[in-house]
């Protein structure tokens, strides 16, 4: 019998120990690892709620939420996020509860508990069964199936906000098994663009990847990436993500946590002495996740494609190093789709209690949209 409880942890250090212990017995994405979840956790989870599933005294599932409240709406639990836009600019993907291997069947029960279970006793008092909103950002198909199972319950809830984005990837393990090179797997047009771009850059020198040798050099790489990233977005009339103080603070802390463990692949790509761009990738359990980048679009000449070229040399390096998957993460950018061999959907969902004001209004809005489409 699996026992699921919700509580408000007083010490996130205790959560860290429990999380790392389960992580060894799980198959998490990088975004479910304590390296990510625990980074600046005290700042990001100002009102934390810990969900724990136990069987025979052994922890089989964990989820860390932050609780937020909104006027005239049920309280919300945000999975792996704060619920504050300025803090959540770090953007979580491949999100979900941390599960012991083979325990995916528990997902619907975990979501039901998050929405309805009372909190464990705090200072001698127990909260009554709740009617909470649940905010799930960047979750995969397994979580979506669990949401549908919960929505099938009479007291389940209603999805009042849905957004789906593709997450393209290159299946390097599959290419190795088939004896196909990365370039051979691409369309003729993509191969032509990459080869022509490489020839153009070769006029400045040989294309090469450099990784930082020290933490100080890593800071310099990150600053160089941020400068190129911001320049690109400012030309579009937008501020760029590095303009958000919380984003840079989080990733400076994350860099210091992950670089010594080999979980951060911060790359500078250059042709001779000419810097083409930087890639800020995570490296975790055989996967490379292309999280952020900065490319020298302003200095690119005709047929020079800094974004495609940087990813190309990074993918080839990963293939040579035995990486199983190069994951571009969420986004339907053309260069991602051109280089990818496949894609998975990621979902951003908000589930609200069925008879809450938000749930009723959302269902009325959907009914009105259906009526508008079908009326003569």
Question: Could you characterize the architecture of this molecule?
Answer:
This protein is α+β, with helices and mostly antiparallel strands and 376 residues long. It has two domains: 2-157 and 353-374, 3-Layer(aba) Sandwich (Aminopeptidase), CATH 3.40.630; 169-343, Aminopeptidase, CATH 3.40.630. Helices cover 36% and strands 27% of the residues. It has twelve helices and 13 strands. It has helices at residues 12-23, 34-37, 41-44, 107-116, 141-151, 172-178, 188-202, 215-235, 245-258, 306-320, 334-339, 357-374, and strands at residues 2-7, 48-55, 58-70, 73-79, 98-99, 133-139, 158-171, 207-210, 264-271, 274-284, 287-295, 325-327, 342-352. Strands 1, 2, 3, 4, 5, 6, 7, 8, 9, 10, 11, 12 and 13 form a 13-stranded mixed sheet that branches. Helix 10 links the parallel strand 11 and strand 12. It is elongated, with a radius of gyration of 23 Å. The relative contact order is 0.15. Mean pLDDT is 90; it is low at 358-376.
Short summary:
The chain has 376 residues and is α+β, with helices and mostly antiparallel strands. It is 36% helix and 27% strand.
Please work out how many helical segments DSSP would assign: 12
**Percentage of residues assigned to helices:** 25-40%
CATH topology of the largest domain: Aminopeptidase
Q: Write down the Rg.
A: 23 Å
Tell me the number of structural domains. 2
Q: State the shape.
A: elongated
Give the end-to-end Cα distance, rounded to a whole number of Å.
55 Å
The CATH class of the largest domain, by name, is Alpha Beta
- Low-pLDDT segments, ≥5 res: 358-376
Q: Describe the biggest sheet?
A: 13 strands, mixed
Strand content: 25-35%
| Secondary-structure element string | EHHHEEEEHEHEHHEHHEEEHEHEH
CATH architecture assignment of the largest domain? 3-Layer(aba) Sandwich
**Number of distinct beta strands:** 13
Mean pLDDT: 90
Structural class of the helix and strand makeup? alpha+beta
């Amino acid at each position: 019998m699996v026992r699921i409880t919700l509580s408000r942890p007083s010490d996130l250090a205790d959560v860290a120990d429990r999380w790392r212990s389960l992580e060894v017995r799980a198959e998490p994405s990088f975004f479910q690892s304590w390296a990510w979840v625990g980074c600046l956790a005290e700042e990001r989870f100002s009102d934390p709620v810990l969900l724990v599933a136990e069987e025979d005294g052994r922890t089989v599932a964990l989820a860390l939420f932050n609780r937020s409240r909104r006027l005239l709406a049920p309280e919300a639990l945000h999975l792996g996020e704060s619920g504050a836009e300025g803090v959540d600019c770090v953007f979580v993907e491949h999100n979900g509860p941390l599960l012991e291997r083979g325990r995916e069947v528990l997902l619907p029960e975990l979501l039901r508990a998050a929405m309805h279970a009372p909190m464990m006793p705090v200072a001698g008092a127990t909260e009554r069964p709740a009617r909470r909103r649940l905010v799930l950002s960047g979750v995969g198909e397994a979580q979506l199936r669990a949401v549908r199972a919960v929505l099938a319950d009479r007291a389940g809830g209603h999805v009042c906000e849905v957004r789906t984005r593709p997450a393209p990837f290159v299946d390097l393990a599959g290419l190795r098994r088939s004896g196909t090179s990365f370039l051979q797997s691409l369309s003729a047009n993509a191969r032509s663009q990459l080869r022509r771009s490489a020839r153009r850059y070769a006029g400045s020198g040989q294309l090469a990847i450099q990784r930082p040798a020290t933490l100080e050099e890593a800071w310099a790489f990150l600053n160089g990436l941020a400068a190129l990233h911001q320049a690109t977005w400012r030309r579009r009339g937008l501020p760029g993500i590095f303009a958000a103080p919380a984003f840079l603070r989080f990733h400076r802390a994350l860099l210091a946590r992950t670089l010594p463990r080999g979980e951060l692949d911060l790359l500078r790509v250059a042709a001779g002495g000419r810097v083409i761009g930087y890639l800020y990738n995570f490296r975790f359990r055989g996967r490379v996740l292309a999280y952020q980048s900065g490319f020298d679009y302003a200095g690119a000449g005709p047929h020079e494609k800094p974004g495609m070229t940087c990813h190309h040399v990074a993918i080839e390096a990963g293939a040579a190093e035995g990486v199983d998957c190069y994951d571009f993460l969420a986004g339907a950018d053309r260069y991602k789709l051109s280089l990818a061999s496949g894609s998975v959907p990621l979902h951003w969902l908000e589930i609200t209690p069925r008879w809450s004001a938000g749930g009723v209004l959302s269902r009325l809005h959907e009914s009105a949209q259906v009526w508008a489409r079908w009326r003569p």
